[in-house]
């Protein structure tokens, strides 16, 4: 049984890669080849689909917009989650358990339920169609997640660390920034990874809260799919490019993924 | 860890509280507001009491969507959780293959949801998609845009493809946290691989698996983008899950009252189920 065990992950990874392969191979085909014949790999290899995306601002600005709001969201979520997670891991205070559960309930809120009210709210305060709007909206589910992960990591750090620092004469802010944050750096990395991930993949709110100036790449794709008919090659190329930022991020955090799941309580 | 009582800790929580409350409470109150009013446009509203809730709870459309939603959620849980555990058990524990496996397996998790839908849409097309073409070549009459059964098959395959890795990563994290001494002790006792799994590995994975089930439950109940790109709820209404139906009513027909009432019922169902999971989970941690 042990000898054959490599077979299971291999088959699973093969299953994961097939649809991705199909998307990537389609992005190098011409529209005629896609619609006309069934080919396992591109017969007439073309980079035209990518050329369109990199020369047309409505396309490449979509990527820029997505990356901007995802970055704002990740920084914002982690920064405000840090002190909150510290409070949850170190202190008991009035209503702490209820507050923690209430935070988690926001992770459960279906985006479809909130799409319209969100639109009205952000319209009313005048930040509709800005990167900030999407970044703020995504904090709804990313802050609870970041608090949850960071609290897990911080609870793994013994309290003696705090006490020793006070004895050594550190003030609380100095201790927090100079000693505590470096200690849980891995946890911050994992929390940032998850914030990036959930903000990058979300479309419904991002699409609802933007019109032109901050439109995410995913919205450009849906619009193309419906307006310009059946340009599958172009769509496949755009899809392929959305996989790349995620792949880069995974590569950097690969050693923390398993650890993050174990220590943090995601 | 024994925690000290400190009410000033509220100041640490305040930024989170303000941001999340702004995003959660104002929209939620808007939904509550709509759910008890009737409008004929022009921003004129009338008090409607609980009539929308009664309508929604009685409508067969809502019952059908809820039924499809429950079927979907429990089917993917029944497939993804055991499959994820089996894959995690078979994964290597040391060496470069660990990184290779983790990076490749995590990839579906970082693909935008509409791209996941579009990818499977193309992959399954009977004429030009790899999956669709293959199945038809094998003599299976497969067309997910016409046959409800095929649409369901594709939808479930897509979700298994998309999210099983999350269960694998969590289960794997639980497994690597088991000290080697446990396995050595089991070996001395001559334990079978089944009893190692039953009495060592499964108890150690209990916490992470509860989290996996909780996350998969919440997210599969909220699923919108992937099925709406893949099938758009069709053919007919056969794959119209709750949130797809909700968006059709709210943004398609602009029936704000019924949509809001439905939203609240929907949210309460998720909340109730998650609360049950959460209390079970925290009780296990305290033991």
Strand-helix topology:
The complex is a heterodimer of chains A (266) and B (287).
Chain A (H helix, E strand, L loop, with lengths): L6 H21 L3 H6 L11 H8 L1 H34 E2 L3 H13 L2 H14 L6 H25 L4 H8 L4 H12 L1 H17 L2 H5 L8 H11 L4 H32 L3
Helix pairs in contact in A: 1-13, 3-4, 3-13, 4-7, 4-10, 4-12, 5-7, 7-10, 8-9, 10-13, 12-13
Chain B lengths: L3 E2 L3 H27 L1 E3 L5 E3 L3 H8 L1 H31 L5 H11 L6 H12 L5 H8 L10 H29 L3 H9 L4 H29 L3 H6 L11 H11 L3 H31 L1
Antiparallel strand pairs in B: 2-3
Helix pairs in contact in B: 1-12, 2-12, 3-7, 3-9, 7-9, 9-12, 11-12
Looking at the structure, what is the overall shape of chain B?
A: globular
Q: Tell me the Rg of chain A in angstroms.
A: 22 Å
So what's the oligomer here? heterodimer
Q: Largest contact between protein chains?
A: A-B, 98 and 96 residues
Over all CA atoms, what is the radius of gyration of chain B?
23 Å
Task: Describe the model.
The complex is a heterodimer of chains A (266) and B (287). By secondary structure, chain A is an all-alpha fold. Helices cover 77% and strands 1% of the residues of chain A. Chain A has 13 helices and one strand; from the N terminus they run ααααβααααααααα. Chain A has helices at residues 7-27, 31-36, 48-55, 57-90, 96-108, 111-124, 131-155, 160-167, 172-183, 185-201, 204-208, 217-227, 232-263; one strand spanning 91-92. Chain B is mainly alpha-helical and 287 residues long. The mean pLDDT of chain B is 83. Chain B is 74% helix and 3% strand. The interface between A and B is large, with 98 and 96 residues.
């Amino acid at each position: 049984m042990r000898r054959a065990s490599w077979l299971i992950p291999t088959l699973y990874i093969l299953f994961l890669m097939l649809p991705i392969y199909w998307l990537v191979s389609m992005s190098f085909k011409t529209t005629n080849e896609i619609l006309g014949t069934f080919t396992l790999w591109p017969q007439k290899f073309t980079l035209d689909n990518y050329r369109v995306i990199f020369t047309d601002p409505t396309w490449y600005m979509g990527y820029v917009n997505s990356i901007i709001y995802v970055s704002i969201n990740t920084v914002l979520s982690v920064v405000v989650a840090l002190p909150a997670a510290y409070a949850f891991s170190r202190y008991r205070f009035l209503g702490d358990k209820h507050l923690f559960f209430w935070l988690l309930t926001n992770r459960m809120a279906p985006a479809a339920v909130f799409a319209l009210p969100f639109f009205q709210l952000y319209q009313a305060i005048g930040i509709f169609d800005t990167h900030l709007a999407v970044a703020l909206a995504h904090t709804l589910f990313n802050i609870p997640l970041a608090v949850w992960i960071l609290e897990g990591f911080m609870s793994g750090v013994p309290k003696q660390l705090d006490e020793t620092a006070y004895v050594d004469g550190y003030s609380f802010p100095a201790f927090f920034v100079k000693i505590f944050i470096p200690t849980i750096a891995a946890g911050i990395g994992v929390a940032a990874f998850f914030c990036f991930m959930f903000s990058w993949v979300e479309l419904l709110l991002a699409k609802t809260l933007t019109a032109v100036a901050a439109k995410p790449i995913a919205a450009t794709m849906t619009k193309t799919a419906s307006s310009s008919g059946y340009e599958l090659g172009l769509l496949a190329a755009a899809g392929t490019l959305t996989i790349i930022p995620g792949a880069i991020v995974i590569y950097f955090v690969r050693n923390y993924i398993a650890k993050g799941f174990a220590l943090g309580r995601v | 860890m024994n925690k000290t009582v400190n009410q000033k800790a509220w100041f640490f929580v305040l930024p989170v509280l303000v941001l999340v409350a702004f995003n959660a409470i104002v929209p939620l109150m808007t939904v509550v507001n709509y759910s008890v009013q009737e409008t004929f446009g022009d921003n004129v509203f009338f008090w409607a009491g609980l009539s929308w809730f009664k309508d929604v709870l009685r409508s067969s459309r809502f019952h059908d969507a809820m039924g499809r939603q429950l079927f979907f959620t429990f089917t993917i849980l029944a497939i993804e959780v055991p499959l994820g555990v089996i894959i995690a058990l078979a994964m290597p524990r040391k060496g470069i293959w660990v990184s290779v496996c983790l990076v490749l397996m995590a990839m579906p998790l970082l693909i935008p949801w509409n791209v996941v839908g579009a990818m499977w849409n193309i992959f399954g097309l009977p004429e030009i998609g790899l999956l669709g073409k293959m199945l038809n070549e094998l003599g299976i009459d497969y067309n997910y845009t016409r046959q409800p059964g095929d649409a369901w098959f594709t939808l479930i395959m897509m979700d298994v493809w998309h999210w099983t890795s999350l269960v694998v990563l969590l289960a794997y994290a639980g497994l690597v946290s088991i000290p080697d001494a446990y396995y050595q002790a089991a070996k001395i006792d001559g334990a079978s691989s089944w009893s190692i799994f039953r009495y060592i590995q499964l108890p150690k994975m209990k916490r992470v698996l509860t989290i996996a089930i909780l996350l998969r439950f919440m997210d599969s109940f909220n699923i919108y983008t992937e099925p709406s790109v893949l099938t758009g709820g069709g053919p007919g209404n056969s794959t119209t899950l709750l949130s797809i139906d909700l968006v059709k009513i709210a943004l398609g027909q602009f029936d704000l009252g019924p949509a809001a009432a439905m939203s609240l019922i929907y949210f309460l169902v998720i909340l109730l189920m998650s609360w049950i999971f959460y209390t079970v989970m925290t009780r296990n941690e305290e033991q």
